[in-house]
Amino acid sequence: MSEPETRTDGKTPALEMGALALLVVVFLIVSLVRLQPFSPTADTASAIGIIVAAGLTFVMYSFLYRDNPLFKIAENLYVGVTLGYGAIMTWRLSLMPEVYDPFFNSPTWGAFWNSALHRTVPIILGVLLVTRLSRKYGWLSRYSYALMIGWGSGLAIPLTVHSYILQQLSSAIAPFHETVAHAAAVPIFSQAWFFELVLPALGAVVVMIGTVAVLFYFFFSVEHKRVGGAISRLGIFFLMVCFGASFGYTVMGRMSLLIGRVQFLLYEWLKIPK
Amino acid sequence: MTRSPADLLRLRRTRHVIYLLVAAVVVLPYLFQLSMPFKPSSWAEKLYHRVDSLKSGSHVLLSFDYDPASSAELNPMAQALLRHCFAKGLVPIVMTHWVTGVSQVEKLLRDTAEEVQKQTGKPVESGKDYVFLGFKPGTSNLVLNMGENLKAAFDKDFYKQPTESMPALTGVQSLKNIDMAVDLAAGTPGVEMWIVYGSDRFHFPLGAGTTAVQAPQLYPFIKSNQLVGLLGGLRGAADYEQLLKKPADATRGMLAQSWTHTLLVILIIGANLRLLAGLFRRKRTRDA
């Protein structure tokens, strides 16, 4: 992620350090003036939270100038906080209510035995997964994995075939069916005939050609020469159109994240009226 | 090809200029409070009209499957959907499959309920006007469980209130009894899981909202009517806000986004012209 650390700008580290110190002072002054975290009417905790978040936002964007120690600290803080938060939430929302409470905080003996009956086997299977970490007892985890894969496949295969293949095939054929079914009812060469019958059918033909061409591009048992080569090149064309659309959306997504941060800085940190 | 230090310096400076230009075109529309008109997409319209056609008291399952990393795009969508549900008198049943997203979803739901309460003067209460089920592990298995018995899958809501006797869940025993579901997702588990294990199996209308990066993957499901509508990225959220006639953060972001896209197009064209000019110059030098 980091670019080469070759110093090519001719600036001295002292100058950069001075500029950084100045920016920190400006940031703190602006934060204290706009948010007034220590005034009697202020929500101090919330204001300090906003100042920390704004500071970390600037530190993260400082990478655009150059990789630096502050960015590294913020990067590690981000990973650590995410993992720590995830671990605590998993304990509070998953392990405690599903594993700990049913055994150690059961309101009655009946509830305890009910939990023991329903939860013991799943808990043992879950614990067996952890044996994966041991070379000696790692084989025990295979029982859990076998069940997970068997169960998962049994559930997933019929549903996935239905949703991803049968439904998609049905929708690919639907425009042809519509065209044939309504052909008699719509006057030929009319606007409705073109837009409601011909255009959807043409679209379906393009999709069908694209699907076959892209699949052929990944079919390596036949040499891609002459007709095969032409179909394969058509497949590349369709793939490029698809990648172009994805890239456009990706740019939009990344810009949205920047816009989100700018909105936070303007509306919550600088308190600019909406 | 090795670059000289002067080339590297020029490259870095060009990059810094591009970053500054992008920052300027994002910030300026906010400082001058500019706005621009835009037409909502047909897929956003379909989703809006589907939600709008539900009768007061209908149950809408909202699965907010994202974490703070995607909140810039998906929080405005979630807020617009919740506002729409409360305005129509629908009962949102909110949950998440992402453990790291629970707190932000809970805050968003609470804030929106308080905002609606302030605007209308009527109380908007958890358990009565809406339900927050929170998080449970299991992803697809959890959806299948909810399809069999929702109240067994979530015997208590996020606030530890039993779901069995909850007024907001009257008449809802499983996913088969809900009137509609909308999943806002930033990845997996997300929309495709809800299609495969939820709507296709238990037959309820499903709408979706995703980050812009994910949106193209879901196009085939709209054509096949497995999704009733789709909101893609911040633009999708802005579309929904406009349809709702309540412009908010997403609408305010549209001008910045349009300007940024225009700048990027200009930069791409400019860079390509410069490259072509360089190639042409080199060819001429070689020929001479």
Describe the protein's architecture and organization.
- The complex is a heterodimer of chains A (274) and B (288).
- Chain A is built from seven helices and no strands.
- Chain A is mainly α.
- Among the domains of chain A are: 13-89, no CATH class; 183-269, no CATH class.
- By secondary structure, chain B is α/β, with parallel strands linked by helices.
- Chain B starts with a helix and ends with a helix.
- Helices cover 56% and strands 11% of the residues of chain B.
- Chain B is built from ten helices and six strands; from the N terminus they run H-H-E-H-E-H-E-H-H-E-H-E-H-E-H-H.
- Chain B has helices spanning 5-31, 42-52, 71-88, 102-120, 140-148, 150-153, 191-202, 215-223, 233-244, 249-287; strands at residues 59-65, 91-96, 131-135, 180-185, 206-210, 230-232.
- In chain B, strand 4, helix 7 (191-202) and strand 5 (206-210) form a beta-alpha-beta unit.
- Chain B has one domain: Rossmann fold (3-Layer(aba) Sandwich).
List keywords for this structure.
heterodimer; A: 274 residues; mainly alpha; 7 helices; 0% strand; B: 288 residues; alpha/beta; Rossmann fold; 6-stranded parallel beta sheet; 56% helix; 11% strand; elongated
Biggest pleated sheet of chain B: 6 strands, parallel
Judged by helices, strands and strand pairing, the structural class of chain A is mainly alpha
Overall mean pLDDT of chain A: 90
User: Order of helices and strands of chain B, N to C?
Assistant: HHEHEHEHHEHEHEHH
What is the second-level CATH architecture of chain B? 3-Layer(aba) Sandwich
Annotation field: number of helices of chain B: 10
How far is it from the N-terminal to the C-terminal residue of chain B, by CA?
A: 24 Å
CATH first level of chain B: which class? Alpha Beta
Mean pLDDT of chain B: 94
Q: Structural class per helix/strand content of chain B?
A: alpha/beta
Instruction: Write down how many β-strands of chain A occur, each being a DSSP E stretch of 2 or more residues.
Output: 0
In spatial order, strands of the major sheet of chain B run: 3-2-1-4-5-6
Counting copies of identical and different chains, the oligomeric state is heterodimer
Terminal Cα span of chain A: 36 Å
Major sheet summary line of chain A: none
